[in-house]
Design a protein that fits this description.
The protein is mostly beta strands. The protein contains 3 helices and 26 strands.
Length: 584
Protein backbone atom coordinates (compact mmCIF):
# COMPACT_ATOMS: atom_id res chain seq x y z
CA UNK A 1 0.00 0.00 0.00
CA UNK A 2 1.43 3.31 -1.08
CA UNK A 3 1.40 6.29 1.27
CA UNK A 4 -0.06 9.56 0.17
CA UNK A 5 2.08 12.62 0.47
CA UNK A 6 0.41 15.24 2.69
CA UNK A 7 -1.24 18.15 0.91
CA UNK A 8 -1.64 16.30 -2.47
CA UNK A 9 -5.10 15.05 -3.55
CA UNK A 10 -5.43 11.34 -3.82
CA UNK A 11 -8.11 11.21 -6.57
CA UNK A 12 -6.70 9.25 -9.53
CA UNK A 13 -8.91 11.09 -12.05
CA UNK A 14 -7.60 14.48 -11.02
CA UNK A 15 -4.10 13.11 -11.33
CA UNK A 16 -4.72 11.84 -14.89
CA UNK A 17 -6.30 15.10 -16.03
CA UNK A 18 -3.44 17.18 -14.63
CA UNK A 19 -0.82 14.95 -16.23
CA UNK A 20 -2.40 15.23 -19.72
CA UNK A 21 -2.65 19.02 -19.45
CA UNK A 22 0.99 19.40 -18.40
CA UNK A 23 2.11 17.06 -21.18
CA UNK A 24 0.45 19.10 -23.94
CA UNK A 25 1.25 22.61 -22.70
CA UNK A 26 5.01 22.84 -23.56
CA UNK A 27 4.50 22.30 -27.33
CA UNK A 28 1.88 24.93 -28.12
CA UNK A 29 3.25 27.44 -25.64
CA UNK A 30 6.51 27.78 -27.52
CA UNK A 31 4.96 27.73 -31.01
CA UNK A 32 2.30 30.44 -30.57
CA UNK A 33 3.76 32.91 -28.13
CA UNK A 34 6.94 34.96 -28.14
CA UNK A 35 9.01 35.31 -25.01
CA UNK A 36 8.32 38.72 -23.57
CA UNK A 37 10.21 41.03 -21.25
CA UNK A 38 9.26 40.94 -17.59
CA UNK A 39 10.34 43.06 -14.63
CA UNK A 40 11.08 41.35 -11.33
CA UNK A 41 11.32 43.43 -8.15
CA UNK A 42 13.53 41.86 -5.50
CA UNK A 43 12.20 42.80 -2.09
CA UNK A 44 15.03 41.20 -0.12
CA UNK A 45 17.92 38.86 -0.96
CA UNK A 46 17.19 35.24 -0.58
CA UNK A 47 19.29 33.38 1.94
CA UNK A 48 19.26 29.69 1.34
CA UNK A 49 18.91 27.30 4.24
CA UNK A 50 19.67 23.64 4.26
CA UNK A 51 16.03 22.95 5.07
CA UNK A 52 14.92 24.71 1.83
CA UNK A 53 16.41 22.00 -0.32
CA UNK A 54 14.38 18.84 -0.86
CA UNK A 55 16.54 15.74 -0.79
CA UNK A 56 15.37 12.89 -3.02
CA UNK A 57 15.38 9.76 -0.90
CA UNK A 58 14.84 7.29 -3.75
CA UNK A 59 14.48 7.17 -7.52
CA UNK A 60 10.73 7.18 -8.42
CA UNK A 61 9.45 4.41 -10.63
CA UNK A 62 7.86 5.48 -13.94
CA UNK A 63 4.75 3.47 -14.73
CA UNK A 64 3.53 5.58 -17.72
CA UNK A 65 2.58 3.51 -20.73
CA UNK A 66 3.74 6.19 -23.16
CA UNK A 67 6.74 8.46 -22.65
CA UNK A 68 6.63 11.93 -24.19
CA UNK A 69 9.18 12.61 -26.91
CA UNK A 70 11.14 15.83 -26.79
CA UNK A 71 10.24 18.23 -29.59
CA UNK A 72 13.16 19.72 -31.48
CA UNK A 73 13.18 23.56 -31.42
CA UNK A 74 15.50 25.68 -33.55
CA UNK A 75 16.55 29.11 -32.28
CA UNK A 76 18.12 31.84 -34.40
CA UNK A 77 19.58 35.18 -33.34
CA UNK A 78 19.01 38.29 -35.46
CA UNK A 79 21.73 40.83 -34.65
CA UNK A 80 20.90 44.54 -34.97
CA UNK A 81 23.66 47.14 -34.37
CA UNK A 82 22.74 49.65 -31.64
CA UNK A 83 24.50 52.97 -31.13
CA UNK A 84 25.67 53.50 -27.54
CA UNK A 85 26.40 56.84 -25.90
CA UNK A 86 27.59 55.28 -22.63
CA UNK A 87 31.21 56.05 -21.79
CA UNK A 88 32.56 54.33 -18.66
CA UNK A 89 34.35 56.61 -16.22
CA UNK A 90 37.95 55.80 -15.59
CA UNK A 91 38.72 54.84 -12.02
CA UNK A 92 41.33 53.19 -9.84
CA UNK A 93 40.61 49.84 -8.29
CA UNK A 94 40.72 50.02 -4.49
CA UNK A 95 42.31 47.01 -2.80
CA UNK A 96 44.48 45.79 0.01
CA UNK A 97 48.10 46.81 -0.18
CA UNK A 98 50.11 43.67 -0.74
CA UNK A 99 53.17 43.07 1.35
CA UNK A 100 56.30 42.32 -0.60
CA UNK A 101 56.78 38.59 -0.67
CA UNK A 102 60.08 37.34 0.72
CA UNK A 103 62.22 35.30 -1.60
CA UNK A 104 62.73 31.71 -0.51
CA UNK A 105 66.20 30.17 -0.64
CA UNK A 106 67.22 26.60 0.08
CA UNK A 107 70.35 27.47 2.07
CA UNK A 108 71.37 29.87 4.81
CA UNK A 109 74.46 30.37 6.94
CA UNK A 110 74.76 32.50 10.07
CA UNK A 111 78.06 33.33 11.78
CA UNK A 112 78.62 35.31 14.98
CA UNK A 113 81.55 36.26 17.25
CA UNK A 114 81.56 37.83 20.71
CA UNK A 115 83.38 38.39 23.97
CA UNK A 116 84.54 35.41 26.06
CA UNK A 117 85.86 34.25 22.64
CA UNK A 118 82.36 33.11 21.79
CA UNK A 119 81.68 31.62 18.35
CA UNK A 120 78.28 30.83 16.85
CA UNK A 121 77.65 29.00 13.57
CA UNK A 122 74.32 27.93 12.10
CA UNK A 123 74.13 26.32 8.65
CA UNK A 124 71.18 24.68 6.90
CA UNK A 125 70.44 23.54 3.36
CA UNK A 126 67.50 21.69 1.83
CA UNK A 127 67.90 20.07 -1.57
CA UNK A 128 64.84 18.99 -3.54
CA UNK A 129 65.66 15.72 -5.32
CA UNK A 130 62.23 15.37 -6.94
CA UNK A 131 58.81 16.85 -6.29
CA UNK A 132 58.25 14.31 -3.51
CA UNK A 133 61.79 13.87 -2.17
CA UNK A 134 64.18 16.17 -0.29
CA UNK A 135 67.50 15.94 1.51
CA UNK A 136 68.42 18.32 4.36
CA UNK A 137 71.72 19.00 6.12
CA UNK A 138 72.22 21.12 9.23
CA UNK A 139 75.31 22.15 11.21
CA UNK A 140 75.23 24.02 14.54
CA UNK A 141 78.15 25.17 16.66
CA UNK A 142 78.36 27.19 19.88
CA UNK A 143 81.49 27.60 21.97
CA UNK A 144 83.21 29.99 24.38
CA UNK A 145 86.95 29.82 25.00
CA UNK A 146 87.15 32.71 27.48
CA UNK A 147 87.78 32.27 31.19
CA UNK A 148 85.45 33.41 33.98
CA UNK A 149 86.96 35.72 36.57
CA UNK A 150 87.86 34.33 39.99
CA UNK A 151 87.56 30.74 38.76
CA UNK A 152 90.56 28.46 39.19
CA UNK A 153 89.57 25.73 36.75
CA UNK A 154 88.91 25.87 33.01
CA UNK A 155 85.43 27.21 32.15
CA UNK A 156 85.44 26.67 28.38
CA UNK A 157 82.63 24.84 26.60
CA UNK A 158 82.10 23.47 23.11
CA UNK A 159 78.95 22.12 21.41
CA UNK A 160 78.76 21.02 17.75
CA UNK A 161 75.98 19.05 16.07
CA UNK A 162 75.69 17.72 12.50
CA UNK A 163 72.32 16.48 11.20
CA UNK A 164 71.04 15.02 7.94
CA UNK A 165 67.53 13.98 6.93
CA UNK A 166 65.82 12.43 3.91
CA UNK A 167 62.05 12.87 3.34
CA UNK A 168 59.75 11.15 0.88
CA UNK A 169 56.07 11.97 0.28
CA UNK A 170 54.69 8.88 -1.45
CA UNK A 171 51.21 8.10 -2.67
CA UNK A 172 50.10 6.24 0.44
CA UNK A 173 52.71 7.15 3.07
CA UNK A 174 55.01 10.00 4.05
CA UNK A 175 58.26 8.74 5.50
CA UNK A 176 61.72 9.92 6.38
CA UNK A 177 65.01 8.88 7.92
CA UNK A 178 67.56 11.01 9.77
CA UNK A 179 70.96 10.79 11.37
CA UNK A 180 73.01 13.03 13.65
CA UNK A 181 76.33 13.29 15.45
CA UNK A 182 77.06 15.61 18.37
CA UNK A 183 80.29 16.53 20.18
CA UNK A 184 80.18 18.41 23.51
CA UNK A 185 82.95 19.51 25.89
CA UNK A 186 82.32 20.89 29.40
CA UNK A 187 84.41 21.31 32.53
CA UNK A 188 83.73 20.57 36.20
CA UNK A 189 84.94 24.01 37.29
CA UNK A 190 82.62 24.60 40.27
CA UNK A 191 84.89 23.99 43.27
CA UNK A 192 83.24 24.55 46.68
CA UNK A 193 84.87 27.29 48.74
CA UNK A 194 84.14 25.34 51.93
CA UNK A 195 86.61 22.62 50.89
CA UNK A 196 89.58 25.01 51.02
CA UNK A 197 91.70 23.20 48.43
CA UNK A 198 95.30 24.38 48.10
CA UNK A 199 96.79 25.54 44.83
CA UNK A 200 98.77 22.33 44.41
CA UNK A 201 95.58 20.26 44.60
CA UNK A 202 93.75 22.56 42.20
CA UNK A 203 96.58 22.42 39.67
CA UNK A 204 96.35 18.63 39.63
CA UNK A 205 92.64 18.44 38.78
CA UNK A 206 91.67 17.22 35.30
CA UNK A 207 88.28 18.90 35.02
CA UNK A 208 87.41 18.19 31.38
CA UNK A 209 84.47 16.00 30.36
CA UNK A 210 83.64 15.16 26.73
CA UNK A 211 80.33 13.77 25.46
CA UNK A 212 79.57 12.10 22.11
CA UNK A 213 76.16 11.28 20.63
CA UNK A 214 75.35 9.33 17.45
CA UNK A 215 71.73 8.71 16.48
CA UNK A 216 69.55 7.48 13.63
CA UNK A 217 65.79 7.70 13.41
CA UNK A 218 62.81 7.45 11.14
CA UNK A 219 59.11 8.17 10.87
CA UNK A 220 56.20 6.89 8.81
CA UNK A 221 52.78 8.54 8.39
CA UNK A 222 49.77 7.13 6.55
CA UNK A 223 48.17 9.61 4.14
CA UNK A 224 44.82 7.83 3.74
CA UNK A 225 42.71 6.59 6.61
CA UNK A 226 43.78 3.12 7.69
CA UNK A 227 44.20 1.03 10.81
CA UNK A 228 47.92 1.85 10.93
CA UNK A 229 48.34 5.64 11.15
CA UNK A 230 52.10 5.94 11.54
CA UNK A 231 55.05 5.47 13.81
CA UNK A 232 58.55 6.56 14.83
CA UNK A 233 61.78 4.88 15.84
CA UNK A 234 65.06 6.12 17.33
CA UNK A 235 68.42 4.42 17.91
CA UNK A 236 71.00 6.39 19.91
CA UNK A 237 74.49 5.75 21.24
CA UNK A 238 75.83 8.10 23.92
CA UNK A 239 79.29 7.91 25.49
CA UNK A 240 81.86 10.08 27.28
CA UNK A 241 85.58 10.46 27.97
CA UNK A 242 85.33 8.41 31.20
CA UNK A 243 84.39 5.14 29.47
CA UNK A 244 80.68 5.50 30.17
CA UNK A 245 78.31 4.32 27.44
CA UNK A 246 74.57 4.09 26.87
CA UNK A 247 72.28 2.64 24.18
CA UNK A 248 68.69 3.79 23.64
CA UNK A 249 66.05 2.27 21.34
CA UNK A 250 62.50 3.61 20.97
CA UNK A 251 59.63 2.34 18.83
CA UNK A 252 56.24 4.06 18.83
CA UNK A 253 53.61 2.87 16.29
CA UNK A 254 50.04 4.22 16.32
CA UNK A 255 46.72 2.65 15.24
CA UNK A 256 43.06 3.61 15.02
CA UNK A 257 39.90 1.48 15.11
CA UNK A 258 36.34 2.64 14.31
CA UNK A 259 33.74 1.98 17.01
CA UNK A 260 30.35 3.10 15.78
CA UNK A 261 30.71 6.75 14.83
CA UNK A 262 33.78 7.24 17.02
CA UNK A 263 37.44 6.26 16.72
CA UNK A 264 39.70 4.56 19.23
CA UNK A 265 43.32 5.67 18.79
CA UNK A 266 46.01 3.42 20.22
CA UNK A 267 49.68 4.21 20.79
CA UNK A 268 52.13 1.39 21.46
CA UNK A 269 55.45 2.00 23.22
CA UNK A 270 58.69 0.03 23.34
CA UNK A 271 61.50 1.92 25.07
CA UNK A 272 64.85 0.37 25.99
CA UNK A 273 67.81 2.02 27.69
CA UNK A 274 70.93 0.23 28.86
CA UNK A 275 74.48 1.16 29.67
CA UNK A 276 77.30 1.12 32.14
CA UNK A 277 79.59 3.42 34.10
CA UNK A 278 83.21 2.45 34.59
CA UNK A 279 82.95 2.93 38.36
CA UNK A 280 80.66 4.12 41.10
CA UNK A 281 81.20 7.37 42.99
CA UNK A 282 82.46 5.60 46.13
CA UNK A 283 83.57 2.27 44.63
CA UNK A 284 85.66 1.01 41.71
CA UNK A 285 83.01 -1.48 40.59
CA UNK A 286 81.24 -1.06 37.27
CA UNK A 287 77.70 0.25 37.48
CA UNK A 288 75.35 -1.33 34.93
CA UNK A 289 71.69 -0.69 34.17
CA UNK A 290 69.16 -2.07 31.68
CA UNK A 291 65.49 -1.04 31.58
CA UNK A 292 62.80 -2.01 29.07
CA UNK A 293 59.35 -0.39 29.08
CA UNK A 294 56.48 -1.88 27.06
CA UNK A 295 53.22 0.03 26.96
CA UNK A 296 49.91 0.55 25.21
CA UNK A 297 47.66 3.62 25.38
CA UNK A 298 44.12 3.32 23.90
CA UNK A 299 41.94 6.45 23.80
CA UNK A 300 38.32 7.08 22.84
CA UNK A 301 37.71 10.68 21.76
CA UNK A 302 34.15 12.05 21.85
CA UNK A 303 33.69 15.45 20.21
CA UNK A 304 30.57 17.56 20.56
CA UNK A 305 29.66 21.02 19.36
CA UNK A 306 31.16 22.72 22.42
CA UNK A 307 33.03 19.93 24.20
CA UNK A 308 35.65 17.25 23.73
CA UNK A 309 36.29 14.23 25.95
CA UNK A 310 39.19 11.78 25.70
CA UNK A 311 38.80 8.59 27.73
CA UNK A 312 41.77 6.27 27.95
CA UNK A 313 44.39 4.52 30.02
CA UNK A 314 48.05 3.57 29.76
CA UNK A 315 49.23 0.09 30.64
CA UNK A 316 52.98 -0.49 31.08
CA UNK A 317 55.13 -3.49 31.77
CA UNK A 318 58.44 -2.33 33.24
CA UNK A 319 61.44 -4.65 33.20
CA UNK A 320 64.59 -4.00 35.22
CA UNK A 321 66.67 -6.55 33.33
CA UNK A 322 69.86 -6.05 35.34
CA UNK A 323 68.15 -6.69 38.69
CA UNK A 324 65.46 -9.10 37.38
CA UNK A 325 62.62 -6.95 38.73
CA UNK A 326 59.43 -6.64 36.64
CA UNK A 327 56.15 -4.84 37.37
CA UNK A 328 52.82 -3.86 35.78
CA UNK A 329 51.62 -0.25 35.90
CA UNK A 330 48.22 1.23 35.00
CA UNK A 331 47.69 4.98 34.60
CA UNK A 332 44.68 7.18 33.78
CA UNK A 333 44.53 9.14 30.54
CA UNK A 334 41.40 11.27 30.84
CA UNK A 335 41.08 14.74 29.32
CA UNK A 336 38.11 17.04 28.76
CA UNK A 337 37.42 20.56 27.52
CA UNK A 338 34.28 22.69 27.27
CA UNK A 339 33.92 25.89 25.27
CA UNK A 340 31.93 28.13 27.59
CA UNK A 341 32.11 31.32 25.51
CA UNK A 342 33.03 31.11 21.83
CA UNK A 343 36.81 31.80 21.46
CA UNK A 344 36.95 33.66 24.79
CA UNK A 345 36.54 31.02 27.52
CA UNK A 346 37.38 27.32 27.32
CA UNK A 347 37.49 25.21 30.47
CA UNK A 348 39.72 22.13 30.48
CA UNK A 349 41.04 19.50 32.82
CA UNK A 350 42.39 16.01 33.04
CA UNK A 351 44.11 13.26 34.97
CA UNK A 352 47.08 11.61 33.25
CA UNK A 353 50.04 9.46 34.24
CA UNK A 354 52.83 7.36 32.81
CA UNK A 355 56.08 5.49 33.27
CA UNK A 356 58.85 7.88 32.18
CA UNK A 357 62.19 6.50 31.02
CA UNK A 358 65.26 8.27 32.41
CA UNK A 359 68.63 8.10 30.66
CA UNK A 360 72.20 9.31 31.09
CA UNK A 361 71.84 11.36 27.90
CA UNK A 362 68.73 13.21 29.11
CA UNK A 363 70.21 13.94 32.54
CA UNK A 364 73.40 15.32 30.96
CA UNK A 365 71.44 17.66 28.67
CA UNK A 366 69.65 19.03 31.74
CA UNK A 367 72.82 19.36 33.83
CA UNK A 368 76.18 19.15 32.02
CA UNK A 369 78.08 18.82 35.31
CA UNK A 370 76.81 15.44 36.54
CA UNK A 371 79.37 12.79 37.42
CA UNK A 372 79.67 9.64 35.26
CA UNK A 373 78.47 7.53 38.20
CA UNK A 374 74.68 7.88 38.07
CA UNK A 375 71.93 5.46 38.95
CA UNK A 376 69.38 5.18 36.12
CA UNK A 377 65.80 4.06 36.81
CA UNK A 378 62.36 5.04 35.42
CA UNK A 379 60.04 7.53 37.12
CA UNK A 380 56.60 6.31 38.13
CA UNK A 381 54.38 9.33 37.39
CA UNK A 382 51.32 8.05 39.24
CA UNK A 383 49.01 10.89 38.29
CA UNK A 384 49.04 14.48 37.16
CA UNK A 385 45.66 16.13 37.78
CA UNK A 386 45.04 19.59 36.37
CA UNK A 387 42.27 22.09 35.67
CA UNK A 388 42.51 25.30 33.70
CA UNK A 389 40.92 27.96 31.59
CA UNK A 390 42.14 29.44 28.31
CA UNK A 391 40.87 31.67 25.57
CA UNK A 392 41.05 35.27 24.41
CA UNK A 393 40.73 38.56 26.25
CA UNK A 394 40.36 40.29 22.88
CA UNK A 395 40.96 39.50 19.24
CA UNK A 396 44.73 39.89 19.73
CA UNK A 397 45.34 38.79 23.36
CA UNK A 398 45.21 35.17 24.50
CA UNK A 399 45.54 33.71 28.00
CA UNK A 400 45.96 30.39 29.78
CA UNK A 401 45.77 29.64 33.51
CA UNK A 402 46.20 26.21 35.07
CA UNK A 403 46.47 24.55 38.45
CA UNK A 404 47.94 21.07 38.86
CA UNK A 405 48.71 18.41 41.44
CA UNK A 406 51.27 15.73 40.54
CA UNK A 407 52.56 12.65 42.37
CA UNK A 408 55.79 10.97 41.20
CA UNK A 409 57.73 8.04 42.57
CA UNK A 410 61.48 7.88 41.88
CA UNK A 411 61.68 11.45 40.63
CA UNK A 412 65.32 12.37 39.87
CA UNK A 413 66.72 15.33 41.84
CA UNK A 414 70.15 16.85 41.16
CA UNK A 415 72.26 17.24 44.31
CA UNK A 416 75.95 18.13 44.69
CA UNK A 417 78.19 15.13 45.26
CA UNK A 418 80.11 14.69 48.49
CA UNK A 419 83.80 15.58 48.41
CA UNK A 420 85.61 12.26 47.87
CA UNK A 421 89.23 13.03 47.00
CA UNK A 422 91.19 10.45 49.02
CA UNK A 423 92.35 7.71 46.67
CA UNK A 424 90.54 9.23 43.68
CA UNK A 425 92.77 12.17 42.85
CA UNK A 426 92.84 11.26 39.15
CA UNK A 427 89.06 11.69 38.83
CA UNK A 428 88.22 15.32 38.04
CA UNK A 429 84.68 15.16 39.45
CA UNK A 430 85.33 14.04 43.08
CA UNK A 431 86.17 17.48 44.52
CA UNK A 432 82.57 18.43 45.33
CA UNK A 433 82.37 19.96 41.85
CA UNK A 434 79.90 17.51 40.25
CA UNK A 435 76.31 16.43 40.78
CA UNK A 436 74.66 13.12 41.40
CA UNK A 437 71.03 12.08 41.04
CA UNK A 438 68.91 11.33 44.10
CA UNK A 439 65.58 9.56 43.54
CA UNK A 440 62.69 10.37 45.84
CA UNK A 441 58.89 10.30 45.92
CA UNK A 442 57.84 13.90 45.26
CA UNK A 443 54.43 15.57 45.26
CA UNK A 444 54.24 18.82 43.30
CA UNK A 445 51.41 21.36 43.34
CA UNK A 446 51.63 24.39 41.08
CA UNK A 447 49.76 27.34 39.57
CA UNK A 448 50.64 28.54 36.08
CA UNK A 449 49.53 31.51 34.00
CA UNK A 450 50.49 33.07 30.68
CA UNK A 451 49.38 35.86 28.36
CA UNK A 452 50.27 36.10 24.68
CA UNK A 453 49.57 39.20 22.59
CA UNK A 454 49.84 39.80 18.85
CA UNK A 455 49.54 43.58 18.83
CA UNK A 456 49.79 43.67 15.06
CA UNK A 457 51.65 41.78 12.39
CA UNK A 458 54.90 43.37 13.56
CA UNK A 459 54.76 43.09 17.37
CA UNK A 460 54.39 39.96 19.50
CA UNK A 461 54.61 39.87 23.31
CA UNK A 462 54.27 37.12 25.89
CA UNK A 463 54.72 36.56 29.61
CA UNK A 464 54.29 33.51 31.86
CA UNK A 465 54.85 32.61 35.51
CA UNK A 466 54.62 29.49 37.66
CA UNK A 467 54.56 29.01 41.44
CA UNK A 468 55.25 25.52 42.79
CA UNK A 469 55.41 23.70 46.08
CA UNK A 470 57.03 20.32 46.82
CA UNK A 471 56.67 17.55 49.37
CA UNK A 472 59.41 14.89 49.58
CA UNK A 473 59.36 11.55 51.38
CA UNK A 474 63.04 11.00 52.21
CA UNK A 475 65.05 14.09 51.28
CA UNK A 476 65.14 17.26 53.37
CA UNK A 477 64.40 19.41 50.33
CA UNK A 478 63.37 19.13 46.70
CA UNK A 479 66.95 19.82 45.63
CA UNK A 480 67.47 22.45 42.93
CA UNK A 481 63.76 22.85 42.14
CA UNK A 482 62.66 26.53 42.14
CA UNK A 483 59.49 27.70 43.85
CA UNK A 484 58.95 30.60 41.43
CA UNK A 485 59.96 30.92 37.79
CA UNK A 486 58.80 32.98 34.85
CA UNK A 487 59.75 34.52 31.53
CA UNK A 488 58.94 37.36 29.16
CA UNK A 489 59.56 37.59 25.42
CA UNK A 490 58.94 40.13 22.70
CA UNK A 491 59.58 40.36 18.96
CA UNK A 492 59.23 43.56 16.94
CA UNK A 493 59.59 44.14 13.20
CA UNK A 494 60.56 47.82 12.84
CA UNK A 495 59.68 48.83 9.33
CA UNK A 496 61.01 46.90 6.37
CA UNK A 497 64.64 46.48 7.47
CA UNK A 498 65.01 46.57 11.27
CA UNK A 499 63.97 43.80 13.67
CA UNK A 500 64.41 43.44 17.43
CA UNK A 501 63.57 41.13 20.30
CA UNK A 502 64.04 40.55 24.02
CA UNK A 503 63.86 37.70 26.54
CA UNK A 504 63.81 37.93 30.32
CA UNK A 505 64.04 34.85 32.55
CA UNK A 506 63.47 34.69 36.30
CA UNK A 507 64.31 31.71 38.50
CA UNK A 508 63.56 31.79 42.21
CA UNK A 509 65.54 30.46 45.14
CA UNK A 510 66.68 26.84 45.17
CA UNK A 511 68.47 24.68 47.71
CA UNK A 512 71.40 22.28 47.48
CA UNK A 513 73.57 20.38 49.95
CA UNK A 514 77.31 20.62 50.59
CA UNK A 515 78.73 17.42 52.10
CA UNK A 516 82.39 17.53 53.25
CA UNK A 517 84.74 14.62 52.76
CA UNK A 518 84.89 13.76 56.45
CA UNK A 519 81.67 13.90 58.44
CA UNK A 520 83.75 13.59 61.62
CA UNK A 521 85.06 17.14 61.32
CA UNK A 522 82.14 18.98 59.66
CA UNK A 523 78.40 18.64 59.17
CA UNK A 524 76.55 18.71 55.84
CA UNK A 525 75.36 22.21 55.07
CA UNK A 526 72.22 23.25 53.17
CA UNK A 527 73.10 26.02 50.71
CA UNK A 528 70.43 28.38 49.39
CA UNK A 529 71.01 29.61 45.84
CA UNK A 530 69.85 33.16 45.18
CA UNK A 531 67.13 33.93 42.67
CA UNK A 532 68.22 35.63 39.46
CA UNK A 533 67.08 37.57 36.40
CA UNK A 534 68.64 36.96 33.01
CA UNK A 535 67.92 39.77 30.52
CA UNK A 536 68.73 39.25 26.85
CA UNK A 537 68.13 41.40 23.75
CA UNK A 538 68.82 41.25 20.03
CA UNK A 539 68.76 43.73 17.16
CA UNK A 540 69.15 43.18 13.44
CA UNK A 541 69.11 44.94 10.09
CA UNK A 542 68.02 43.29 6.85
CA UNK A 543 69.70 44.76 3.77
CA UNK A 544 67.68 42.61 1.37
CA UNK A 545 66.12 39.16 1.14
CA UNK A 546 69.54 37.53 1.33
CA UNK A 547 71.80 39.55 3.62
CA UNK A 548 71.25 40.69 7.21
CA UNK A 549 73.37 41.53 10.25
CA UNK A 550 72.54 41.08 13.93
CA UNK A 551 73.76 41.82 17.43
CA UNK A 552 72.88 39.91 20.61
CA UNK A 553 73.37 40.98 24.21
CA UNK A 554 72.98 38.35 26.94
CA UNK A 555 72.90 38.78 30.72
CA UNK A 556 72.63 42.54 30.26
CA UNK A 557 72.43 43.08 34.03
CA UNK A 558 75.92 41.50 34.32
CA UNK A 559 74.58 39.28 37.07
CA UNK A 560 77.03 36.41 37.52
CA UNK A 561 74.43 34.22 39.16
CA UNK A 562 74.83 30.53 39.98
CA UNK A 563 72.70 28.24 37.85
CA UNK A 564 74.00 25.29 39.89
CA UNK A 565 75.82 25.44 43.23
CA UNK A 566 79.36 26.87 42.75
CA UNK A 567 78.78 27.29 39.00
CA UNK A 568 78.76 30.95 38.06
CA UNK A 569 77.69 31.88 34.56
CA UNK A 570 79.26 34.35 32.16
CA UNK A 571 78.59 38.02 32.87
CA UNK A 572 77.55 40.54 30.23
CA UNK A 573 77.95 39.02 26.77
CA UNK A 574 77.81 40.77 23.40
CA UNK A 575 77.86 38.98 20.06
CA UNK A 576 77.58 40.27 16.50
CA UNK A 577 77.17 38.40 13.26
CA UNK A 578 75.86 38.11 9.74
CA UNK A 579 73.27 35.88 8.06
CA UNK A 580 73.26 35.11 4.34
CA UNK A 581 70.65 33.17 2.33
CA UNK A 582 71.29 31.69 -1.09
CA UNK A 583 70.50 28.79 -3.42
CA UNK A 584 72.82 25.83 -3.85
Amino acid sequence: MKKRQPGIPGNKYLWSLAFVFLSLSPGFAQEKENIGTETVDVVRPYKANISDAFKVREVPALDDSTLLKKKEINYSIFSVPVASTFVPAKGKVSGIEKKKRDMLYNTYVSLGLGNYSTALLDFYTSREITKDQSFDIGLNHHSAQGQLDETELDTKFFDTKLEAAYRNAGRFYRWGVSGSFRHQIYNWYGLPEQAGFGQAVIDGIDERQTYYTAAVGGNLEAIDESVFTGGEFTLRRFWDAHDSGENRALLNPSFQFPVGEELITTHVFADYVGGEFKRGYFTDEKWKYSNLLLGVNPNLVIDGEDFSISLGASVFYGMDIENDDNDFYIYPQVKASYRLVEEFVTLYGGVVGGLDQNSYYDLVQENFFVSPTLGITPTDRQYDAYVGMKGKLSSSIGYNIKGSYRAENNKPLFRANQVNVAGNENQGYVYGNSFGVIYDDVTTYSAFGEIHADIDRNLTLGVNAEISGYDTDNEQEAWNLPIVQGSFFGDYQIGEHWFAGANIFFVGRRKDLYVPESLMTAEPQIVELDSYFDVNARLGYRFNDQLSVFAKANNIANNQYTRWMNYQVQGFQILGGVTYKFDM
